[in-house]
Design goal:
Order of helices and strands: EEEHEEEEEEE
Number of strands: 10
Radius of gyration: 13 Å
């Protein structure tokens, strides 16, 4: 059974940091590349970052380059997103999933990140 549990969100001031975690079920995690996505109020869910199975390659949406870092621990079936220098426009619900996930796939509940100005 697919399971994705995101955690680590919260309320932080502009310039602050948060570290998100995502515990994924074995079948989901072993599928390969994983990603973080986010959905701001009134907007579509968007890609934030992806990482390959071996962690040899990562990619980021332009707005978070230099501020966010994605990583994974395959032994723990966990994906992380270190977010530094947070901005109010980073406020959203953050989700993890396989990198190729679409809106029709299973999604976890996400974790809320709120950045105050």
């Amino acid at each position: 059974q697919v399971q994705l549990v995101e955690s680590g969100g919260g309320l932080v001031q502009t310039g602050g940091s948060l570290r998100l975690s995502c515990a994924a079920s074995g079948r989901t995690f072993s599928s390969g590349a994983m990603g973080w996505f986010r959905q701001a109020p009134g907007k579509e869910r968007e890609f934030v970052a992806t990482i390959t199975w071996s962690s040899s390659s990562t990619s980021y949406t332009r707005s978070v380059v230099g501020r966010f870092t994605i990583s994974r621990d395959n032994a723990k079936n966990t994906v992380y997103l270190q977010m530094n220098k947070l901005k109010p426009e980073d406020t959203a619900v953050y989700y993890c999933n396989v990198a190729s996930a679409t809106k029709n796939d299973y999604w976890g509940q996400g974790t809320q990140v709120t950045v105050s100005s």
